[in-house]
Amino acid sequence: MAVNSFASIGNAFDNGKVHYQYVYKGAIPSPGTAGYFVDTSLSSGTPKYNGYIGNALEATPFSGSGNNGIYVGNYLAGSTKHLVRWQAVYAGASTPIPSYLMLMDYLLFYPLIDLDSVDQQDFDNTLSLTRYTSGEGVRAFIVLTAPMSISANCTVVYTNSDGVTDRTVSFSLIPGSGNGIVVSGSDLSGGVAGSTTPFIPLSSGDKGIRSVQSFTMSGSAGGFATLVLAKPLAELVLYESGVPTEKNFGFETRQMPEVKQGAYLNIIANQGAVQPGNLRCELIFANS
Amino acid sequence: MGFSSTDDLVSEITSGKYWRADWNKITGAAAYAAGRWYDFSALGGAPVANAFSGTALAWQSASDSSGFSLYHGGNVSTDTKHALNGSAITQVGTGIPSQLMLVDMQGYYPGISLNSATAQTLTGTPTLRYANGVGVRAYMVITTTSGATAHNIAMSYTNQSATAGRTLPVTVSCTASAITPHINHSGTAANNYGPFLPLASGDTGIQSVQTVTISAASGAGVGALVLARPLLSIPLTTAGVASERDFLNQLPALPRVIDGACLTWLYFSGAAVAASTNFYGAIDFGWG
């Protein structure tokens, strides 16, 4: 079963199978430079602060529960859960608009990548994806947990969603000046602001990432970073400070993103201005 | 019954099956903190304030004749009544951005001590407007300011399948020194949840609550545990500009208002709200 029709949305509301959730982040990270993405999970509020706590370079799965990740309500046996509405707003007059928000299911992370080291840093994949296990549709982004000083190029070796190992991509990290800035770029652009996508590029023909084997810097850039595997679920654009944007999935997009059991939902945001941002959201989830 | 088409909707409401309900509320002498939920039924204005009267710990039913309910046009059976659109406004800059949620309050258990760490047994059998309590949720609202000692809330309830002994699936913390009418388990702390207390896995509603336990005597305070069903929400975006939601074309679509419904507002503060802030609004109802 799935929430895949107007009737099924109505059924969910009629039968109490909906959950209203509210996000409150008093100060999400500043992008440092306009046009950079930031990871809102690295800020306190609701949901809880995500410190990317784990052993260096070890695959560490995310598991959502309560306020660990955006709370999506309880799960019902035999049902699937879907996002049916998402509304977001930056409070106040000085905000990072225009802003492009991406709601994602954070799946797994590799913490404490040393951006000063030019040695190959091999990742421990004892643990693997627990959702989207093939890796199809799964993307990777790199977020700072200690600031860099300069841009540098890097190489990532990963296994794609077909299980093919040793897929290799090289790209530039943009020079993030603060924690929570997403520094993964799209290509070897030299790290200019516009090159952030925020995901690392995929090798030709690939549809996703199952795991990452290694990370190598071509030069020292300073700082530490975490590589995150995540499944993008939905997007929203904020145009004005204090004015919410809302998307009614099914009505406007004809597609209601599924939220897997155990999902750890959080948001990254491309910031049009150098402001910390004061984010509030309403999300409505419906069970089939 | 209901509306078989847009033509039918227009025909029904133009033949008199329509009611516009205007309301206003003013917050009290204390400012509200950002990121928290408040129960506007306890505020003065129109309709009048809910005093959460009754014998301590004994169920008190609420209906459209309770006085503090928004009047919505009376009983219409065998027709069904639906919210068609709604609007709200505040002139005060600190009142936005925020959310208003309209709920059908089923009733409440008043007089719950927040200065007691022992389980408090609730009495009475709720008569609910929703069969088996489907979609009915619970929240605790402060009726006398709580004490300064940190405390959590736990409860044992009977779910929609008449299974007793259901408990909250996560630790839920309350705000110390919470004011009237704060929903004291909502806020921005790590274990705050709001506006409703989380349901146990697999549950879609609450028939009744048997016990409430505060983990530590807070030092003072009284609360009421409310059972309510969420119907719709309206974002407040800009001071002095009315927000309007179209319930025909947006989610939830045409939320039903059952005969006898006790309609009250919950409020999510997106910013610190100044004392004595006014809110106004109206909802259009139609039936057929």
Written description of the protein model:
The complex is a heterodimer of chains A (288) and B (288). With 288 residues, chain A is mainly beta. Chain A has one domain. Helices cover 3% and strands 40% of the residues of chain A. Chain A contains 1 helix and 17 strands. Chain B is mainly beta and 288 residues long. Chain B has one domain. In chain B, 3% of the residues lie in helices and 39% in strands. Chain B has 1 helix and 17 strands. In chain B, the strands form 3 sheets. In chain B, strands 1, 3, 5, 14, 15 and 17 form a 6-stranded antiparallel sheet that branches. In chain B, strands 2, 4, 6, 8, 13 and 16 form a 6-stranded antiparallel sheet that branches. The termini of chain B are close together. The mean pLDDT of chain B is 95. At the A-B interface, helix 1, strand 1, strand 3, strand 5 and strand 17 of A face strand 13 of B.
Q: Would you identify the regions of chain B where 5 or more consecutive residues have pLDDT less than 50? A: none
Number of strands of chain A: 17
Number of strands of chain B: 17
3D shape of chain B: globular
Quick overview of this protein structure:
The complex is a heterodimer of chains A (288) and B (288). Chain A has 288 residues and is mainly β.
